[in-house]
Specification:
Blueprint: E1 7-10, E2 41-43, E3 46-48, E4 57-61, E5 64-69, E6 72-76, E7 90-94, E8 97-100, H1 106-114, H2 141-150, E9 154-155, H3 158-165, E10 221-227, E11 250-253, E12 269-271, E13 280-282, E14 284-287
Parallel strand pairs: 10-13
Antiparallel strand pairs: 1-4, 2-3, 4-5, 5-8, 6-7, 8-14, 9-14, 10-11, 11-12
């Protein structure tokens, strides 16, 4: 298991080697109305509450940096999307939690395998011999669950993933805002970068979220804890994963290399739990403890 280094920093943006970036972390923060509210922050057509008692921070333990995401509520989904599985738009309450700043890397996953907590990845020429700072691809849903459990966390819920991708509820199309994707913003396949190779994690800082999360759209598409359902009818509204009833497919989010899956914040992709490929990885979450 990882050993805490007791590092706790106010986030300005962090790269895996510990260097700071110029990421602006003064974006909208949201919450239901506690007694010590600051003034409301306006974002698009939504009013987002900004609590004075919560700030985005980062806690690094060995190779894993966990970003604190403050509680809030947001409108999940899209009633006007081309795909009906993004509807209906519904309000979700999110409790304060922490999420990995990066996708799981080759080095992180190797530690888990070496300690006997994770099964080795499926070996193909595209997934073997990757550099330590690349996403650990070629892992299915169960291997993703194993890693998140070993890390001291859990798999992120689909609602939490959309919450952080939209910068805690702002009505942005992508984690970096509304500008259309370029290869400077994200590592993507299909018509953007047309590549099947991942890049080192956090190597596209201009595409980071306002809270400093890397590669939420691009590099590797990421597993979530949820079963896929054809619409959000009956979905949880408390930010938890939708695990009952079960289904045939698990949800993946974020777009990635070797795939034409949309990198938009609200786009949903789904595959059988035993699916794996050279552009699929995972990012874990964990409960926030004061």
């Amino acid at each position: 298991m990882l050993r805490p280094l007791s590092i706790f920093l106010v986030l300005v943006g962090c790269t895996p080697d510990g260097g700071d970036t110029d990421t602006d972390t003064t974006g909208p923060t949201v919450d239901t109305a506690p007694p010590d509210l600051a003034d409301p922050v306006l974002s698009g057509d939504a009013t987002l509450w900004a609590p004075t008692s919560c700030s985005t921070t980062i806690d690094c333990e060995d190779d894993i940096c966990w970003v604190k995401i403050c509680a809030g509520h947001f409108d999940m989904g899209d009633d006007y999307a081309d795909l009906v599985n993004q509807a209906p738009r519904h309000t979700v309450e999110i409790s304060t939690f922490e999420i990995m700043q990066t996708e799981t890397t080759v080095a992180m996953y190797r530690q888990c395998v070496d300690e006997g907590a994770c099964d080795p990845h499926d070996i193909t020429p595209l997934c073997d011999n990757l550099a330590d700072d690349r996403p650990r691809t070629c892992i299915d849903w169960e291997r993703s669950r194993q890693f998140c459990e070993w890390s001291g966390g859990r798999m992120v819920s689909e609602a939490e993933y959309e919450f952080v991708s939209t910068n805690r509820g702002a009505d942005h199309k992508y984690p970096w805002g509304n500008a259309e994707p370029t290869c400077d913003l994200a590592r993507l396949g299909c018509d953007v970068c047309n590549t099947t190779d991942t890049s080192p994690v956090c190597s596209h800082p201009d595409g980071n979220s306002e809270q400093g999360l890397c590669d939420l759209a691009g590099n590797a598409i990421e597993w979530t804890a949820d079963w896929f359902h054809n619409s959000y009818e009956g979905a949880p509204t408390d930010g938890s994963a939708w695990v009952d009833p079960d289904s045939t497919f698990r949800v993946m989010r974020g777009g990635g290399v070797g795939s034409c899956a949309g990198p938009e914040n609200r786009h949903r992709t789904f595959h059988e739990p035993d699916f794996w490929y050279a552009g699929g990885s995972v990012r874990c979450a964990r409960e926030f403890v004061e």
